[in-house]
Amino acid sequence: MFIDIDCSQMKKYNQNAYGDYFVSKRYPDEAMLIAVLSDGLGSGIKANILSCMTATMLLRFIEGGQIPIRKAAEIIMNSLPVCQIRKISYSTFSAIKVDDDGHAKIVEEGNPEFIWIRNNEVIQPDYDTIQSKTFKNRKLRLYKINLKLGDRVIFCSDGVTQSGLGSGKLKLGLRREGLITLVKDKLAEHPDISSTELSQYIVNQARNIETDRLAKDDISACVLYFREPREALIFTGPPFHQEKDAEYAQIFNKFKGKKAICGGTTANLLSRELNKPITMDTTISIGKLPACSYMDGVDLVTEGVLTLTKALEYLESGLPDIDNAAVKLVKFLLDSDCITFMVGAKLNQAHYDPALPVEIEIRKNIIKKITTVLQDKYFKKVNLQYM
Question: Considering the entire predicted model, what is its pTM?
């Protein structure tokens, strides 16, 4: 079971920093994921610092494994100072620790209660209440739940549940009940919607019901979707030992998920070993990148180092509004959950041509950087295999 997770956020109107902070980390060796959403007091820079501190500390406490999530949350709850003016906590938080089998522990303090949906029906789980030893008005909710394939878990800041507060139709705001209705209607229409799309939908809808469509508070929605993983394989670079070309070609050919080839030499190798011709795209390439090619049974065929370098740039900074080979490669990667790179170790002398741009790095280093971005920014599972 794969955990598809994403968080969409919107700053309060007229602020230049997010008052909510989200952090998530996947641990492939332990088949586990931890995510924390914190809401800082107020908005702007001060709230950003408070929520960032809370979320980061809680993640660090939990990830070590030496402190149980309950104890870690208690430490944070009992330690957060109180604003002397407003007499409330400097920040609130929600956190989840879940493995690939669906065994999850969730803690909440001050944030809206999370929503658990199965077969488009809300499940209301039992929980333990832990009273703060330091502050009488603080209580921690601790849940232990077992998630199944198709389940969704939704966390949000009060910028979602209180959106529209004071307006004609929503004098008390959207509230949790309104959010549940909104999400269930969307899932009924699009049952396979991704976590990215659903979280963006929630944030946009919360903003749209505000007066003048201006966010009156920081708005954050985190969605987890438990589903079958989408597998992808990228073959780039010829193997170090040429006598193993046929073996690796068969591994690529028999792969059941989506497949891509990055590199002209690699494409020619697979074409030769699998007896599948390559068809060149005769359209004019966009920008400096060569156009894609086509091979039967392969979802994407691109040039190598140039395209990989540009794809890394797009992964880090965002996709431009064009349709070149690197954009197609990025979309291929982002539409996958578990990505395997088969990276050939044979040196390609073309990469040492002094006429090529200075910023082009050896294929291995580019793939390593792409792996890091996919894991840390997009929460993908990535496996590197050197040949």
Answer: 0.83
